[in-house]
Amino acid sequence: MHVVVCVKQVPDSREIRIDPVTNTLIREGVPSIVNVFDLHGVEEAVRIKEQFPGTRVTVVSMGPKSAVAALRECISLGADEAVLVSDRAFAGADTLATSYVLSEAIRKVADQWGPVDLVICGKQTLDGDTGQVGPGIATRLKLEQLTYVERIRQIDPEARRITVERHLEDGVEVVETALPALVTVVEGINQVRRASMPGMLRAVRYEPITWTVDDFPEIDRTRIGLKGSPTVVGKAWVPEPVSRAGETLTGQDGEEGPGTPAEVARQLFDRLLATELPAQIGWAVAPVPAGDGGAGTPDGSPVNGGVA
Amino acid sequence: MAKGKAQEVQVPTDHEGVLIIVEQHGGQAKSVSWQLLGQGRRIADKLGTRLMALVMGHQVEEVAQEAIAYGADVVYLADDPVLEQYRTQPYAHTAVEVIREAKPEICLVGATYTGRDLAGAIATLVETGLTADCTQIDVEPPPSRLLLASRPAMGEKLMATILCKQRRPQMATARPGVFEALPKDPSRQGELVRVPVTIREEEIAARVLEFIRDPNRVNLEDAPVIVAGGMGMGGPEGFEMLRELARLLGGEVGATRPAVDAGWIDRAHQIGQTGQTVRPKLYIACGISGAVQHVVGMEGSQVIVAINQDPDAPIFQVADYRIVGDVHQIVPALIEEARRRALVGEEAVARG
Amino acid sequence: MAKEHFDAVVVGAGPAGAAAAYTMAKAGLSVVLLDRGEFPGAKNMFGGIIYRHELEELIPGCTQERTFPVERHITEQRYWLLGPESVVSIGHKHERFNSEPYNAWSTFRVKFDPWLAGKAEEAGALPIYQTVATGLIRDRSGRVIGVHTDREDGDLYADVVVIADGVNSLLAEELGVHRTWRPDEVSLAVKEVIALPRETIEERFNLEGREGTTIEFLGATSQGMTGLGFLYTNRESISLGIGVMVSDLMRSGVKPYELLESVKAHPMIRRLIKGGETKEYSAHMIPEGAWRSMPKLAGDGWVICGDAAQMVNFVHREGTNLAMASGRMAGETIVEAKANGDLSAQALAAYERRVRESFVGKDLKKIQRMPEFLASQDPKQLFDGLIGALNEAAFRFFTVDSRPKAQTHKEIMQDLIQAAGGPGGLLRLAWRGWRAING
Which residue has the higher pLDDT, B229 or A128? Predict the structure, then answer.
């Protein structure tokens, strides 16, 4: 088996803050990490390698030179080879141009190290959050597309079939299809291992293979980078919630001081039931049984009358 | 998303109209599809053009009729056994044929798992721009007619509007719960166009073996009432109280990201930029400070009640009813009161 | 796979470890540089002062580099003796400090440490981070031959283990070369980085361009405890903190963050940080035992440097400087030993001699009586009483009223002497304080 994992180095979005004065992003000091979903992809590939000895795991990334750190991390986890596709000509790509370049890179990987049986991507990146690159690659390479996979049930290299469990809103869909396929994985698929010391030592000494645009003589230069990207960012802003003129409930109508929690609760329900909410929600609005076992009046205050 | 200026190139003018791809499973449409028809209607009217829907499946003509009732002028219906269950290949193939035929200028898909799976394939096949997971959708009026697809960006701390100036259709997936559906009007008239399905079962490798419904999945999207908790709940026990209150009100439990990160409740309950966007009829925020990342996921709620000990908590700014107090006293009182008023039938309570 | 063997494993990639790793890797030795953090300095969010001389000694020309991560070069140093609402200050500012070569800079360790470790990496040291050295590996003779780590298959073998894992050094403890500190041998420094616009900082401290100021303060701010406060200007922030003896903290029951809050509220400091936003808060232990608690520095297969070896000159806030110097000397010793083919304990002992004969040892020795001096004084008398009286004296000295000056001055002297515990007390205090600082 030959498994290719696509990874991306992303800024750690947990560390990104907004400058409260200028309302701009504070990028300084934000560390770069391997997109977490991609790490799960690498882990899954290494597990496949452990299950089927002789499997080769190649990691492919498109990004700036500094992404070698991300690729080294993948090597430390057990990937065999890592390729960085890096060139200014590729910069500024949206998902369409990115999936084009990555699919060309995967073709080249297959030329160099043998046909690819499975491509694994994270379900989305932390910085782009689109989840579109995986389907883009699958479509371009005519791979069977299996997104949001939370478990690979079975791979049969002989029959060239794969069965996976896809994570959907209300349950799990079990799908079987042919290899070669592209799988995008969710966090829950596995626990990413901690690299072993030999893995770490191999990684720090490893030099990823770098391919520039010149390594792709056939590539269509109108379809890469900024030029090949149909989408552009218009404006960007920091979201501001719209304030509502709310009412503070004290449990007391009028000028009296704060009431008990029970009084506040009663006041809230009186307010809510006076609106259109009961009809919209389908609440049964019945007269409230007065003095119902003292419920609602632990403080002994009289039960406020029924529903408005 | 690419940065920088795109050259001004002549936009193809032979594309016109707004197309919504309706998502249905077993003849049941996802509510996001009707929400998108609602928003699609608004932008189609602004552009002075027609609203189209595409319904794919097997024996789903009723869904096509519903699409008209929810605002579509034209519905393309691809009804064939190969479309019985969603599979990327036949659905993408069919949708692309319809897009090439109908030539919409805008194509919107719900940002569900299925919708995102499909939209990514379609956009690649027609080589156009696709903006994912939008929370705002608008258009520039003619003559520019540009789709303004806005979405959270950069770790969800910014909103960015993405434009696709030169290619058509302009595509976007839109998050469930963000837009409002029009009232269903069965008397609405529209045109139904049956489209042939040209892909055959033998050409399709994928088989859906089974679907395992997970009863523990929460349906925040369709819940009329959400009782949500934040760090002020103090721990998983706090969320037990919220479950009880939600049950008595016929709703679901939501949570802020910090509460989810703390392990007090499953991530499926997370509301906010990194979680789900919800717009229930009633939202009760308990012990939630009101960080903007949470608020943008719930501010579309019809009525918002906030309970917080800190009178200056930002959550109060978006609340219709503010209760300053300890959630550990107020929530039990609300539970008592809800029980006393018996708003939800016993049957529903037991079911919940 | 046969276990790989390295010339040296350096545990801790702070200034001491990075300097050692750099020196050895530069000389062609195979070096692994371990650190528990995500990257060196990751847990050290604080700004500090670094000096040119030692850095240039280690990596000539490096302070001229464009990437040299500093905030401001220091042109003015002030010392403040604080009363509850007053200050007596002395200080020095010189235009010569405002031209190259600069003497010292303010910096952030979170930037400085990775930069220095990066130098070691460029020189060929293999960085292995997010890895904890959990113990030492010894051969039958007891010689240290490597470290265990918390990674799978994690043992690393080397001719020499350089222990530079900081103030709470696990490995040094395992070696038995240092015991757990007594509370009167360590201080706890609590610190904050407070963001302010660049113009505001330059206005408040009377600075131009990249000039910077440091203020060291003692007195009322330490609430009757033995302590020293500090304030450094960064480009767009101020580093503010105070260190007090752990033993005093335990005695007084004051919470560290309360202490820092009261420092920030002091009228002389409040004005300098007004309108600023706290960006980081951190607390850090600093060994204060100086010369006398410095352990044995080398043994069979190991050397120890930096904070792990208690090398902090608390009187002159030079922990980073001493750490880098000791790391460099450890590295140089190992390089020489390797060249001579003699890595015995005797050969490594040259490192200890080198340290003790250098400014590191001499400076630390110079202040060797300081801990005892401080321990022998009632901090209340020293930091509240005496400094308070000094401020009171200054107030009266500068207050112009109808009384004859001679009488006022006489009264001032009398009060000062009384605050010091009588005429003999003042003399004794002065003498012992002098000796504590000057050996």
Answer: B229
The contacts found for B267-275 with CB under 8 angstroms, 24 or more apart, are: B268/B216, B268/B217, B268/B218, B269/B218, B269/B220, B271/B220, B271/B226, B271/B228, B271/B297, B271/B298, B272/B296, B272/B297, B272/B298, B273/B152, B273/B156, B273/B297, B274/B156
* B201 burial level (CB within 10 Å; 0-12, 13-18, 19+): exposed
With a CB cutoff of 8 Å and minimum separation 6, the contacts of C149 are A197, C34, C128, C131, C132, C133, C134, C155, C156
pLDDT at A229 over 50: yes
Interchain proximity A197–C126, CB inside 8 Å: no
Amino acid letter, B245: L
Q: What is the pLDDT of residues B283-293, one digit of tens each?
A: 999 999 998 88
3-state SS, residue A75: helix
Is residue C156 within 8 Å of residue C6, measured between CB atoms? yes
Read off the pLDDT of residues B2-55 as tens digits, 9 standing for 90 and up.
444 444 445 667 899 999 999 999 999 999 999 999 999 999 999 999 999 999
CA C102 to each of CA B28, C14, C64, C68, C76: distance values in angstroms, whole numbers, following the listed order: 74, 23, 10, 13, 12
Contact residues on chain B for A154, CB-CB shorter than 8 A:
none
For A39, what's the count of Cα atoms within 13 Å in the CB-facing half-sphere? 19
- What phi and psi values does residue A11 have, to the nearest 5 degrees? -70, 140
Predicted confidence (pLDDT) per residue in B85-99, tens digit: 999 999 999 999 999
Q: Omega of the bond prior to B169 within 30 degrees of 0, cis? A: yes
Q: What distance in Å separates the CA atoms of residue C417 and residue A53, rounded to the nearest whole number?
A: 85
**Whether residue C383 has pLDDT greater than 80:** no
Residues in A closer than 8 angstroms to C149, CB to CB, are 197
Neighbours of A161 (CB within 10 A): 17
A46 contacts chain C (CB < 8 A):
no
Q: How far is C127 from chain A (nearest CA, A)?
A: 7
Q: What is the CA radius of gyration of chain C?
A: 23
Paired with C74 in beta bridges are C212
Maximum Cα–Cα distance across chain B: 66
Cβ contact A118:A156 at 8 Å: no
**Rounded Cα gap, residues C327 and C25, in angstroms:** 13
Would you tell me which CATH number, out of the four given (3.30.700.30, 3.50.50.60, 3.30.559.10, 3.40.50.11440), belongs to the domain C5-70+102-181+290-366? 3.50.50.60
CB–CB of C131 and A200 under 8 A?
yes
**Quick one: B183 and B251 in the same domain?**
no
**Count of the separate structural domains present in chain A:** 2
The whole-angstrom separation of Cα B233 and Cα B228 is: 10
The CATH homologous superfamily for domain C186-287 is D-Amino Acid Oxidase, subunit A, domain 2 (3.30.9.10)
DSSP C9-57: EEE--SHHHHHHHHHHHHTT--EEEE-SSSSTTTT---EEEEEHHHHHH
Contact (Cβ atoms closer than 8 angstroms) between residue A133 and residue A49: no
B230 shares a domain with B190:
no
Contact at CB, B319 and A236, closer than 8 angstroms: no
Question: Which residues share a beta bridge with C240?
Answer: C192, C231
